[in-house]
Each structure stands twice: as C-alpha cells, then as structure tokens.
Design brief:
Elements (H helix, E strand, L loop, with lengths): L4 E5 L4 H12 L4 E5 L6 E6 L4 E6 L2 E6 L5 E4 L15 H15 L8 E3 L2 H7 L2 H11 L6 E6 L9 E5 L5 E3 L4 E3 L3 E4 L7 E10 L5 E8 L2 E8 L16 E5 L3 H13 L4 E9 L2 E8 L5 H7 L3 H9 L4
Parallel strand pairs: 1-2, 1-6, 6-7
Antiparallel strand pairs: 3-4, 4-5, 8-13, 9-12, 9-13, 10-11, 14-15, 14-17, 15-16, 17-18
Helix pairs in contact: 1-7
Length: about 300
C-alpha cells in the first residue's frame, strides 16, 4: 500500500481517531504509527533519498517523498520526563531513540505538515511566542523571566507565576502538571529560587478564550464557570461552560497572522478578555481540540482533514 497521509500518534489519542475515521470515509489511504507500538513494527527509513518501508502485521506500506501528501504529527518534539532512573536501560534507549526517529521524519520535505516538529519546537518557546505576539500587535501582560522576586509589588496586588515550559514533576508513583498560580505580591519574599519562571501581571477578573486555528479557519470559544475562574481554567474544580464567540476582526486577523508567522497550520491560542481588551497569553502548537469539538458541536477534525488533503 502507498499511503497519502502519515499519522504519528499514540493508541489512546482519541482526537486522532476522529481524523482517521474521516480519512477512511473520504477513501484516503493513510498509515498511522502509534508511538507506543513501535516495537510491533518493522521500519526501514532511507534518509538520503527520502523513503520508508513499514511492515505491520504482514501488511507493507511504502512511502516516498513524492507519494506522501501530508503528515499529521501528534507527538512532542522532545521528552519532558527524561530522567526516570527506575526504567531499565533498554527502555530508556527505546524511548529516546524512537523519539529521535520521529523527529527525523522531517526528511519528507515535500509533504504538508501539521505541524513540522522544527516549527513546533520554535513555537513551544513561550518567550518567543510573546515576542512575536507583541510584534503583531496583541495586548500582552507585563512579563519577566526571573529566578528571584525583587520587583513583586511593581506588578500590582496580584501576580501570575508559571513555568517557562510545560512542566511535569513527580516520582515513579505520580506525575503532576505545573499550572499557572496567582499570588498576592505583598506575601512574596525577595528570595532566589532553584529554577527560573514567568512572572506576569495577573489579569483578573477575566474571561478565558480558546482560539482554534486550522490554516485560515478560526473558532473562538469562551470558557467560563458559575464560579469565577481566577487562575488557569484547566485546574478549575467546578464544571466549565463553553460558548462560541465572534472575535473583533483585528483580533481574529492577529490570531491568523500569528499562526502563519510561526508556520503553524494548526494551533490553539489562549487569550484573556480583560477590561475590554483581548490579551495574548500563549499558544500550543499541538494543543488538544477534541474537548472543544465535543462541547460546542463543531467538526474541527474535518478542518484538519481538509488541510491534510486539500480538495481540488
């Protein structure tokens, strides 16, 4: 078989399931490589004359730079939980080298990518995001990256503290994500910390806006709750409400321009509406979209498929 679309994902990625079903319904041949099943595949990749042969359960797939139309890349650009001393050496090697392998799929330069890991890596840097967003014309919260707090009170009564990168901490028994936290600046001592972090003006009270972009298609959804959301809505305890909204034309244009500036065919932008203005907070180039699709009854996966396989 000669697939037109290559998908890099995992077995339990339900968002990707929707894309695969849609491709099948359109009669598009695709190959899905699940990162948790690599030990079940036989793979030969020729990086010099880009081509790949993959055998799965007796079925052989042949991919070349000329035959491959697009790649849907649902994978991190690097492992954020590198140090896991409880893992055996062969398991550590498995994880690191297969992660490196899928990054090296960038040899397929002629394919349309959602998104190319080179672009994703750059876009995941939050300081770079803010620089580009400011250049485009977004409102931004005052932001510093620090490893000490000496100017806390100059940020007002409340400040937001968050990790520079998506942080996963824990031990062999439990993992935890590090979310944005709000602090009263009067309670923060002037001290040094073991790692740097973002220090931002807290925008509250606020409305959270998730903007999903697929090329020139945009969907803006307000996320709120009966109990006001002071910090990160992802860690809010009560049920959330989702409502499709229409952004002002200039804000919508900024969102589309931002995605194009970072060469992202898909991305999820987080905005905050505060005191009559829309503030850019961050972008996730591999951000989850299925929860939005299910809560506002929009077929985001169809937009992704249309981007992967354009209709003439």
């Amino acid at each position: 078989m000669i697939p037109a679309v290559l998908i890099v994902s995992t077995t339990l990625d339900f968002s990707t399931d929707f894309v695969c079903i849609g491709l099948s319904e359109r009669g598009i041949c695709y190959l899905r490589l699940n990162r948790d099943r690599f030990n079940e595949y036989e793979i030969i990749l020729n990086p010099i004359d880009p081509s790949m042969i993959v055998t799965i359960a007796g079925q052989t797939y042949e991919i070349s730079d000329d035959s491959l139309m697009s790649i849907y890349y649902r994978a991190p650009t690097f492992l954020r939980d590198i140090y896991q001393p409880e893992l055996a050496e062969d398991k550590q090697l498995y994880r690191s080298q297969w992660a490196a392998f899928i990054r090296n799929l960038i040899v397929f330069e002629k394919a349309v990518w959602i998104n190319n890991p080179v672009d994703t890596y750059r876009a995941e840097n939050k300081a770079y995001q803010l620089m580009i967003a400011g250049r485009i014309g977004f409102f931004l919260p005052r932001t510093l990256i620090v490893n000490h707090i000496s100017q806390a009170t100059s940020f007002g009564e409340l400040a937001a503290i968050k990790s520079i990168d998506t942080a996963i901490v824990g031990n062999s028994e439990q993992e935890k994500f590090v979310y944005t936290q709000l602090y009263k600046t009067s309670t923060l001592d002037d001290q040094h910390f073991s790692s740097p972090f973002f220090f931002q003006t807290a925008l509250t009270p606020k409305s959270d806006i998730r903007v999903t972009i697929v090329q020139d298609w945009l969907l803006a959804v307000k996320i709120d709750s009966e109990v006001p959301i002071a910090g990160d809505w992802r860690k809010h305890d009560t049920s959330l409400n989702y409502e499709i909204i229409e952004l002002p034309l200039d804000v919508a244009r900024n969102c589309i321009q931002f995605a194009k500036e970072l060469n992202l065919r898909y991305c999820a932008i987080d905005l905050i509406f505060f005191k009559g203005e829309y503030y850019f907070i961050e972008v996730n180039p591999t951000g989850e979209w299925l929860f939005i699709q299910q809560n506002v009854n929009q077929r985001i996966h169809e937009e992704i498929i249309s981007s992967l396989v354009p209709v003439d």
